Amino acid sequence: MTRHFLALHDYTKGELDSMLALAADLKMKQKSGIPHRLLDGKTVALIFEKASTRTRVSFEVGVFQLGGHGLFMPSGSSQMGRGEPIKDSARVMSRYCDGVMIRTFGQEIVDEFAKYSTVPVINGLTDLFHPCQIMADLQTVIEHKGGYAGLKFAWIGDGNNMANTWIEAAAIFGFELRLACPNGYEPDQKVMAWAEAKAPGLISLTNDPQVAVAGADVINTDVWASMGQEAEQKEREKAFVGYCLDDALLSLAHPDCIVLHCLPAHRGEEISDSVIEGKNSVVWDEAENRLHIQKAIMATLICCKCGDAVSYRG
Ligand code: CP
Ligand code: NVA
Description:
Blueprint: H1 13-32, E1 43-48, H2 54-65, E2 69-74, H3 86-96, E3 99-103, H4 107-116, E4 121-123, H5 131-145, E5 152-156, H6 161-173, E6 176-180, H7 189-198, E7 203-206, H8 209-213, E8 218-221, H9 233-239, H10 247-250, E9 258-261, H11 273-276, H12 283-302
Parallel strand pairs: 1-2, 1-3, 3-4, 5-6, 5-8, 6-7, 8-9
The structure holds phosphoric acid mono(formamide)ester and norvaline (NVA).
């Protein structure tokens, strides 16, 4: 059975923990110069229908470090960008490649691609989810806090793809998550309902950022207008007044809390320069971990030589 990585809810805690452990091992190997060519001779297509720095570079470098080839495909230069049906593209790409990563708009696009693909498909961000990013974030939390169990997580800002994926993560991994979002910018209702049914009482939603960050161990924020919402920027700036993660807000959290931001950041909007550059910020480690966790995800889905990390594969 081909397994895809489209959303965290398709995986158990044990499976995701295995990927996090493999990511730590691959990070150690890469830093120690120990070869880990788990995708030797494999090709992974990287389809982008939205802009990217981290996702493009970390996937391309990651496939290379695993001994494979990353094939960068901006949608504007492929027939997909000219309207070739997703299902036709998926069946054709599957004949050439060993895996496909897609960054696009609707979650239904990656779902459709995966339905017709005979090779693993990885979600590199949709309007609904950003699962690779949250896995990198969790790797960063584990590195800085020794684990995630028992920690208080806070989300400040838009109820967007990042927030939705954090909600799934909280329900699967079993940690407390308090989200502060302005009225009208709440997370996806179906995602919230799924999480509440899976892990009753762990996830709460407020309009008050101070309530969300009080005593938090991990604070996460993101841009107020995501890719595709640029026309709403001015309107969103008004709605998000009071949602800047600045020193005053940070002072309410646990003194040793860590601050995450998936980047790119808009200093002075969702986060102040002093906080992103400050002692609690771990955003550069977080960005680096995209490389290591995505190598683990690709190795788990595509490679046949990864031992326990792939034991759940059909
Ligand atoms: N965080 C993230 O996905 O960054 P890019 O948009 O640069 O890929
Ligand atoms: N929420 C942001 C994340 C960027 C990595 C967006 O979708 O644009």
